[in-house]
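pls ignore typos typing on phone
nicotinamide-adenine-dinucleotide + seq
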Amino acid sequence: MDKIEQFLDIVGNSRNIVFFGGAGVSTESGIPDFRSVDGLYNQQYDYPPEQILSHTFFMNKTEEFYRFYRNKMLCPDAKPNTAHIKLAGLEKKGVLSAVVTQNIDGLHQAAGSRRVYELHGSVHRNYCMNCHKSYDAQFMLSSEGVPRCSCGGIIKPDVVLYEEALDDSTVTGAVQAIADADTLIIGGTSLNVYPASGLIRYFRGNHLVIINMSPTPTDKNADLLIHGKIGEVFANIGD
Ligand code: NAD
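k done
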């Protein structure tokens, strides 16, 4: 059996799949990841992206944060790709229970996925730091400089910045889903960002599948390892 046949066999025989993904799931939608050769870490900015996307940087250099954020993190024209769409289809068929994602782009929901644990939040939710009024991504995109609420407060994206803690209930839900899964498919993530990537240790099901372009620290534990593009691999799943 080749690897794609093995993948289809595992998916076909699973009853409770959980997908754990990262930025590589959205590169085929035109959103750059962090660590690929054309990812954000290999482009030139005055500061490294990890520093810009930190809580300290947000508080101290808010305008500079927003210059990067509007240019690189808000991608209003991005559409779900085959991986997002097939994952939503597996949930609809009742064989996938949850998507756990490190992405903040909302593309799983745009594809129709309903149970999505967004470990790092979402660019689609933004709140005034003063009165907590909410704003959408379009408002953030069309604002200039530091986006301000009608009350004058600074608006902050509901995105977990470096140095900030993950949301407790999101983590609890994700851990429960992973612990209950019979198959865990990990895809499009370098598994380098903690504590998010540590959640996969709660998996105790039958099949661990990894689909990623480059090696990850967990490859040795995989029952099936596919080095390829996730959209192309998922395209083999029938409707
Ligand atoms: P990462 O950039 O560290 O790693 C991405 C991985 O995906 C790499 O190993 C790469 O080889 C692989 N990859 C790229 N395109 C792929 C494809 N088409 N098919 C299969 N594999 C592919 O991403 P990460 O592990 O998610 O960590 C980065 C952090 O940055 C996350 O916390 C995430 O929140 C954030 N981020 C999010 C977005 C987004 O929301 N779309 C984009 C950039 C960064």
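The chain has a mean pLDDT of 94. The CA atoms of residues 179 and 204 lie 6 Å apart. more later
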